[in-house]
Design a protein that fits this description.
binds zinc ion, alpha+beta, four-stranded antiparallel beta sheet, Aminopeptidase, 18 strands, 2 domains
Length: 391
């Protein structure tokens, strides 16, 4: 559901196909090449045939059961329901967990809602629902360093009630560690028109503490979209969908939304014939690549992955240091920047590195530094305090 359309225009920038940071990863490309048009079409038709999925309807319950069966069929066994009540109806978020090999307690959340309003919601949000299930199908036997949680939220159309419940009752009390929330909502486009662009949505709302990181993830999402699909991208502001309760909670979010906005959502005309299945197919390729990248999928036979290190991979020592310190990168080949600031925020040093290195650093009587480590996407992946002691 998207209602605040007016605010959007200000934030749209069409990005040309300009690629820099990432290059095509053959392991990822191979997985993306298995995105199946037929599988997506089958899911969309199924979703439509299940009917109007409003709270309290048999259709909504049947859709829930169909989604669970699909994951069970694909071999997932960690499936749980997050149950809540909305206007007297018991409703369910469907949560499927795939455990990561290295950071099992930190999650990439790939989410979208499956409830609909007035119509069958084949675009809003059968499109996102089908793509999420397709990603899950393709990633079932792929190793990822981070855990992935595929979440199909309910009661989004009632005001993001399901995602709000999940954030207040699971994410917040459990202090769940989330790398990124990747929301997919209404990505069907408009039948009979060229649908060649997708909105990549970044956090531009308060609290702003994570907005820069969200922007970096969203830039990455756009870059991957150019690499792995034939779509162009527009960076726009995130609003009006299930990532927003996470956003309010201070989590890092990004999302996909159709660029050419359909007029049929929330009507009985939100049907397969009114969306563009080829567009859904391209969006699915972009979303699959992004999930692989965000969760750091890797090939166990070659150990090959994107080689983009995370905060956990880079360390600075000793701390406190005296005349020099070391950066350990645990094997990354990506170029990073270390930027040191003094307590007043003045930049003292900026150093590029792509492997382990020693930084000899004559300190002018300063005892406390602050540092940022910035990746090629401009994302601050680590920051902290570095202490200097005179010998
Ligand atoms: Zn929606």
């Amino acid at each position: 559901m998207k209602t605040k359309l007016l605010t959007l225009a200000l934030f749209i920038f069409i990005m040309p196909c300009m690629l820099k940071a990432q290059t095509l990863n053959p392991f990822y490309q191979n997985i993306v090449s298995n995105v199946s048009y037929d599988s997506l079409l089958f899911s969309l038709e199924n979703f439509e045939n299940l009917g109007v999925k409003q709270p309290g309807t048999q259709a909504l319950d049947n859709t829930k059961n169909r989604i669970i069966s699909k994951y069970t069929w694909e071999g997932y066994n960690n499936i749980s329901l997050d149950t809540f009540t909305n206007s007297g109806h018991t409703m369910y978020n469907i949560v499927i967990t795939k455990t990561g090999s290295l950071y099992s307690n930190k999650y990439v959340i790939v989410d979208g809602h499956y409830d609909t309003r007035t119509g069958t919601g084949t675009n809003d949000n059968g499109s996102g629902t089908s793509i999420i299930m397709e990603i899950a199908r393709l990633l079932k036997n792929v190793n990822t360093e981070y855990s992935i949680r595929f979440i199909h939220f309910s009661a989004e159309e009632e005001g993001m009630v399901g995602s709000g419940h999940y954030v207040s009752n699971v994410v917040s009390p459990q202090n769940m560690q989330i790398r990124i929330v990747f929301n997919i909502d209404e990505v069907g486009g408009v039948a009979g028109f060229p649908n060649d662009t997708i909105k990549c949505e970044s956090d531009q709302s308060s609290p702003g503490s994570n907005n820069a990181t969200s922007a970096a993830f969203t830039d990455t999402l756009a870059t991957l979209t150019h690499l792995y699909s034939n779509l162009k991208t527009a960076i726009t502001n995130a609003y009006g969908s299930d990532y927003m309760p996470f956003q309010s909670n201070g989590n890092i979010i990004t999302g996909l939304y159709e660029y050419r906005e359909s007029s049929v959502p929330h009507t009985s005309n939100d049907l397969l014939i009114n969306l563009d299945t080829s567009y859904v197919y391209e969006v699915a390729k972009a979303a699959t690549a992004a999930t692989l990248y965000f969760a750091r999928a890797y090939d166990t036979t070659t150990g090959f992955n994107e080689l983009q290190p995370t905060a956990e991979d880079i360390s600075i020592f000793p701390n406190p240091f005296n005349s020099s310190f070391y950066i350990s990168t645990s094997g990354t080949q990506e170029t990073h920047h270390l930027v040191l600031f003094d307590a007043l925020g003045q930049k003292i040093l900026s150093k590029e590195f792509s492997s382990n290195c020693e930084i000899a650093f004559p300190c002018a009587g300063i005892s406390i530094y602050f540092y940022n480590i910035i990746n090629e996407s401009g994302e601050v992946i680590k920051s902290g305090k570095l202490l200097h002691v005179e010998k």
